[in-house]
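Field log, afternoon session.

UNIT: design team B
ACTIVITY: writing a sequence onto a fixed backbone
BACKBONE:
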């Protein structure tokens, strides 16, 4: 059937998307150590190539992949995890499915393509066994504890001590001690539980998440002389950490972002506000000058 130039341009965009994702899946499959994951990635890549050929039969043209997109998603998967990277990519593919429905069915077997794309998402959910996602509960524990406890401690210390270096020193000691304590608690909790997780790895993930959070929250007190400026910067860092982490989990595990982000942010900032008032009250009550 005859198609207009505008429709052909639209179809070439779909065609380019399919060949781009084909190369992404192939590239990722080549570096997979898990044979099951590698096999499924190769199968999905073959499906993407099939879709490319379907669109090519209509447009009559070869299309090159978007090399920057291939590199972008490849490295996102390598750095942040294959589950996160592919689901991030599949979100864009889900948007494309809505557009596919607007294309006349006589042009290609559109329904088949959409069904295949839905199967892709289900395969991705069921196929991957990433260590970082298995231990995401331990990361949440370390991150959440550090955000709530240390944010509160720093807010209270800011008004009580009013010296950025002293606040940084006290906060660092408090944070490191709390990180070791949390890691030990997670080790004992995992060892006595039935989750099937390795207690040593669970403790390491919890401790590392806590330590990284401590470093980022203390950093403003090492960079700025004004303790109120440092506190404001720390609060901004808290919100950014919460936003980034919850976005990662929401994509990788298909969880709602806004509600989880709002709860975590409200908890951390609420504790910080209360601790700030406690620091002010204790300073006035004990008449301490540093």
């Amino acid at each position: 059937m005859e198609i207009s130039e505008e429709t052909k341009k639209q179809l070439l965009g779909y065609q380019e998307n399919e060949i781009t994702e084909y190369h992404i899946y192939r590239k990722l499959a080549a570096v997979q150590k898990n044979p099951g994951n590698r096999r499924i990635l190769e199968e999905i890549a073959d499906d993407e190539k099939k879709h490319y050929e379907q669109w090519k039969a209509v447009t009559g043209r070869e299309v090159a992949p978007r090399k920057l997109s291939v590199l972008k998603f490849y490295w996102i998967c390598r750095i942040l995890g294959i589950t996160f990277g592919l689901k991030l990519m599949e979100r864009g593919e889900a948007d494309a499915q809505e557009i596919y429905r607007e294309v006349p069915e006589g042009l290609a077997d559109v329904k088949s393509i959409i069904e295949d794309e839905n199967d892709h998402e289900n395969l991705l959910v069921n196929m991957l066994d990433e260590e970082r996602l298995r231990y995401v509960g331990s990361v949440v524990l370390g991150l959440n504890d550090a955000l709530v406890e240390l944010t509160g401690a720093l807010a209270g210390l800011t008004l009580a001590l009013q010296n950025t270096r002293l606040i940084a020193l006290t906060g660092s000691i408090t944070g490191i001690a709390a990180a070791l304590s949390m890691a030990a608690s997670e080790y004992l909790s995992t060892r006595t539980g039935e989750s099937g997780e390795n207690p040593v790895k669970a403790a390491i993930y919890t401790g590392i998440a806590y330590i990284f959070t401590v470093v980022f929250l203390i950093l403003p007190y090492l960079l700025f002389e004004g303790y109120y400026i440092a506190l404001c910067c720390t609060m901004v860092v808290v919100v950014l950490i919460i936003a980034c982490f919850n976005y990662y989990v929401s994509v990788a595990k298909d969880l709602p972002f806004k509600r989880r982000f709002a709860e975590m942010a409200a908890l951390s900032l609420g504790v910080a506000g209360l601790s700030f008032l406690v620091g002010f009250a204790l300073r006035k009550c004990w008449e301490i000058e540093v």
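LOG NOTE: The chain has a mean pLDDT of 79.
NEXT ACTIVITY: expression trials, pending approval
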